[in-house]
Structures are given as C-alpha cells and as structure tokens.
Amino acid sequence: MIDKAAIQELKLQGGAQVGAYLKKLSDINSITLVLENLGELPVDFEGDFLDNYAIHSHEKVRFWAIKNIAKLKQGAYLNKFIVWLKQETATQVKREIVAAIGRLKTEKAQDILLETLLEKDAKLVCQAIRGLLYFKSNPDILERLQALINHPNETVRTVIYKEFSQKKPKAANSQAHSHVYDGLKNLVINADVLEVLPHLPDESVHLTFTSPPYYNARDYSIYESYEAYLNFLSKVFAHTHRITKEGRFLIVNTSPIIIPRVSRAHSSKRYAIPFDLHPLLVAQGWEFIDDIIWLKPEYAVKSRVQSFDNNRKPLSYKPNTVTEYLMVYRKQTNKLLDWNLKHYEPSITQDSLIANEYESNNVWSIEPEYDKIHPAVFPEDLCERVIRYYSFKNDLVFDPFAGSGTVGKVAKLLHRYFLLAEQEENYCQYMRQKIKPQPKEGVETRFVSLGEFLKK
C-alpha cells in the first residue's frame, strides 16, 4: 500500500498522475488514504479527476474528494457544489459541501447559503453562517443572520451571539484575571453564606468547590420544603456566578438523598438533588462541562439492599448507593480556555502543571473520611484533585459551605488562597486547629464574624 511520503511525491507530479494512480485502485481504504493525505494543493493543480469521486458510492470517498476540491477555491465549482448538495444524503458530506461553498466567497453563493439556514442540522446551519458572515456588510444578509439569535438550536444561537453581541468595555477599576483581593486571601467568615455573598466583589473568585448541605438530612440543614431548599441553593449559586471570574469553574458535590418514612404506613422519599439543581444552574449562566463520579467502597455506605437480600421480591430492589456526583460547570463565556491561560505568568503556568499521575476517567475511587466533629467531611484526596485540575497557583478557591474546612486546608497546601463561609461556630473553631499555619506563610489565615468582615 502506498505511504504518505509516496502520495506527496505523486502529488508533485500533477493532478493527472494522481488521477491515473487512483483509477488503478478498487479498495476503498486505499482510495481514501490517497485522498486524505494529499494535503495542500498547488495553485495549478489539475483536480478534474476529483469530480468522479465527489459522487462515489462510498461516503468517506465523497467526503475527502469534496475536501480536496474545496482547496482549489475555483468559482466554477459552485454549480457542481449546489448539485452535489441537493443529491447528497450523508450529513457529514453535506456539511463539507456547504463549507466549500462558503470558502468560494462569491455573491453567487448567497442564495444557496441562505437556503441552507433553513436546514434542521445545526452544523449545516453553522457552516452556512460562516460563509454568509463574509457578506454581513449587506443589510439583507445581516438581518437574516441576526434573526438567528432566536433559532431553536442552542449551538446556532451561541454562534450568532458570539458574532454580534456587544462587548462590554472593562470598568476602569476592573482587576486582572489572575488578581486576588488581599482582603479575601485565606479568610474564614463565620456567617450565613447568603449574608456574605452580596458583599463579595464581582469576578473575585477563580474556583468554587463545595458540597451543599443535604436536604433535611442533618440538624444543620433543615428546610421548610424541598422547593425552599432548591431556592436557597439557587440564590447561593447565582451570587457565586457573579463573583466568579469569566470562564472559570464551579464544582458541586451532591448526590440523591433519602428522607426516611415517617411511619410504616408511608414510604421513604428519595430526592434527586443533582438533577433538580442542574437546570437551575444552567439557567443562571453556568455551562455544564462534566459529571465526575465519586465511587466509595460498599462497606463505607449504609446498606439499602438488606431487605431485598432477605426476600428477593420483585419491585423491592434498592441498591446500595456507593456514588456521589461532582458536577462540573464553567461560567459561560465566548472565550476559549486558552484565553484564561494567557493571563498568567509563564512561571505560574509551569508551576501549576499536573505532575506525576492523574485521573484519566470520570470515575474516582476515593475512600471517604470520617470525623468526630463534622458528619460529612471532604476527603483530602478529592479536594486535591479538584483544586489541582481546575485552578492555578495563587488562585482564590471558594467554598460557600466550608464545614470542617478541608477545601481551605488543601488549597493552602497547594499554594492557593482560600475563602470560606461557614455559619456553624463550632465548625469554625474546629477549622482553627485544622488549617494550621504553614512555614514561611505569606498570608495569615484569618477568622472573622460577618460584622468584622463588613467593617474592612
């Protein structure tokens, strides 16, 4: 079989030679290999032989033929592209044809591109948008494009929003992306988080990692109703969205919770907290990125399967719940991740690289930890992974439900700053022992009441 180097050498001999070679091939993989590896084509490349492969019976062959024809950027191909588009059934090939039409940058292509805006396939529509943006100085084209802000598909709406949204000028006193306010560094505030959040500056936090109190599962987490509980969390994370820097992350550790039955005449109730919370977060402007499963050993969880194990009756099966969710969200932005990276000094980026082993999949097997003071503590290993994977050194890590302060302890060990809110005074007292000063610590850990915080 011909290799890539031989294909490049054949290409230099001209399109006629490539066409003659392809005529000798009957194997689809061999034909595809040649078409896929032609690479950049010379200006004078004779590509007429590609026409037959653009209508080949095999989808992959058609795809690579169109891709190569598009490199020629010859306006004479427009009518052929239109015919091929109307005949094509494979969506991947259709997208490539529309992309090829857009690259021609000719006014004659406007009608077919506008027609393509009516397609159901969002990727086809987005390709047509790319082609039409070249003509956005035309008022009619501009109007058609801007109207797509109401398109039913979210991807299309996002593309239009990015292209036409007004960019807000930065406020004169806005801080650099990597900046951390001195007053928030290594700070523990003993107060209700909803009383703290309104007083935190916009875009002051790089990463939030937290485990909200579970609905009516502990003495410190009693709510009048499940709706009231979700409303409370919604308020907390709406404020958190405001204080999070553009494009940075929120990781929420939750799991469904069981409320025991009130008597034998009633059933227990299971609440799907992560799934009920998710649409609220998305509506606030958090973009869902990943779900990470925290897997615990079965011996570490309360048994639910014992009754079924005894009677084996259908309908009574209830498995032991050995997982919790780490739901990963990013504050919505039009900017790519690289934009965040560019705001750091190269030395900080280098020092923040993930050394040694890392978790390659979304199931993390981590032993839970137990504590005499707090009934539901974060394992330090869990905190370490999240903080290392989703922040840089010297970033500010926030936990609105700090509990025993594990997030703060681990953040400090990893050379990040932390900001914690915790309303239970006994937990704050416990944190004083847990978050111990580090040798040569640059910023002292401070514990303050709400009143003390507001005075500063």
Shape category? elongated
Determine the strand fraction and express it as a percent band.
5-15%
Structural class determined from secondary elements: alpha/beta
Spatial extent as radius of gyration: 29 Å
- CATH level 1 class label of the largest domain: Alpha Beta
What assembly state would you assign to the polypeptide chains in this entry?
single chain
How many beta-strand elements?
Answer: 11
CATH architecture of the largest domain: 3-Layer(aba) Sandwich
Per DSSP, the total helix count is: 21
Outline the biggest β-sheet: 9 strands, mixed
CATH superfamily of the largest domain: Vaccinia Virus protein VP39
Number of domains: 2
Mean pLDDT: 90
Can you lay out the helices and strands and say which pair or pack?
Blueprint: H1 4-12, H2 15-23, H3 28-36, H4 50-54, H5 59-72, H6 78-87, H7 91-103, H8 110-116, H9 122-132, H10 139-146, H11 154-164, E1 187-190, H12 193-196, E2 205-210, H13 226-243, E3 244-254, E4 257-259, E5 269-271, H14 273-284, E6 286-295, H15 306-311, E7 323-331, H16 337-341, H17 346-351, E8 363-365, H18 380-390, E9 396-399, H19 406-413, E10 417-422, H20 425-434, E11 446-449, H21 450-455
Parallel strand pairs: 1-10, 1-11, 2-3, 2-9, 6-8, 9-10
Antiparallel strand pairs: 3-7, 4-5, 6-7
Helix pairs in contact: 3-5, 5-7, 6-7, 7-9, 8-9, 9-11, 13-14, 18-19
Q: Could you describe the 3D structure shown?
A:
The protein has helices at 4-12, 15-23, 28-36, 50-54, 59-72, 78-87, 91-103, 110-116, 122-132, 139-146, 154-164, 193-196, 226-243, 273-284, 306-311, 337-341, 346-351, 380-390, 406-413, 425-434, 450-455; strands at residues 187-190, 205-210, 244-254, 257-259, 269-271, 286-295, 323-331, 363-365, 396-399, 417-422, 446-449. The protein has 456 residues and is an alpha/beta fold. The chain folds into two domains: 4-164, Leucine-rich Repeat Variant (Alpha Horseshoe); 182-455, 3-Layer(aba) Sandwich (Rossmann fold), CATH 3.40.50.150. The protein has a nine-stranded mixed beta sheet. Strands 4-5 form a two-stranded antiparallel sheet. Helix 19 (406-413) links the parallel strand 9 (396-399) and strand 10 (417-422). The longest helix has 18 residues, at 226-243. The radius of gyration is 29 Å and the shape is elongated. The model has no long low-confidence stretch (mean pLDDT 90).
